[in-house]
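Re: your question from the hallway

Yes, I did run it. Sequences:
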Amino acid sequence: MTAHPLKLRSLTAVPVSIPLKRPVGTKAHSFRTAAFLLLTLDTEEGVSGRSYAFCYLESIARSLLPIVADLSQVLAGHAVSPVELSNAVARYFKLPGLYGPLCMVASSIDAAAWDALAVSANMPLATLLGATVTGVRAYNSNGLGLMEPSAAADEAEELVAGGFRAVKMRVGRPTFAEDLAAIRAVRNRLADDVNLMVDFNQALSFSAAMEYCPLLDEEGVYWIEEPIRHDDFTHASMIAAATRTPIQLGENLVSVPPLLNALKADATDYLMFDLDRIGGVSGWRLASGLALAAGREVSSHLFPEISAHLLAATPTMHWLEYLDWADPILEEPLRIENGMAMLTSKPGNGITWNADGIEKYRLD
Ligand SMILES: [Mg+2]
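Structure:
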């Protein structure tokens, strides 16, 4: 590691939109492409850090370019210290508030700073965080949108073909009977020891969730994700109390204070953190301490490449959500073996850009 701290020279960003091999229809939005903002943090010392934001919409990815350009000027000359950088970004966004796309950018800068530190230290991010480079248990989340039961069963079978021991399907169809038919079709097609997660993407009302979630106790479901509005912790705790199947929440927690509120309300059995909402690598580390104190297992949401390093360093590590969406723009996509995401001993968080892929998918 360099004796002197790295100094940030510039931030650059490229918006891309990558077609999905398996489109994902959710109750909220139907994804045919993944819109990313690819962020590179360059230092005066020649070391670079990389990360990406998942922007949901192409227009959001584009809209963040002038914001990254602003932040590049604001942060130039700062030490590549995640604490110092996040304080500076928080000050800059104090009045608009660190939510939504601004939170994505702030978190991505933090993740890129940690990558630069790990590259500079010549060690994988997981090692820098005190963990062992290892395999991380993953579930396959590529696809299984709101589709017909027989199509869902076929797709589930394809998703476990590579040795995955768990898959996630989206639910929240117009009627619960339709969801139930799809869940049963998928469950019947999968081996008994393959876990099936279901994700409502906040589709249900409280009263519907109180009726439907306990019925899923009989259907061999591993967890029920976000049955109702993500920030309604009071009602979520009542649903969790009424349902034997574990409830899973957390992808919408923006930084650590709402996590404390969710835990105080006993809103969930399991937790999942989203790198770009929880506050990057720094936010994840703080959040994982709270999860440990509250005895909650932690899974990841999106960003499998960086999340694998973070989960390896999370005391209550649970499941990695595996998605291949970023593979076309990565030099070395995350490798999966028998359902395990395999970290390598390469320095950094594993992200290096594939120039041809970026050229092909960049948004003008
Ligand atoms: Mg979800």
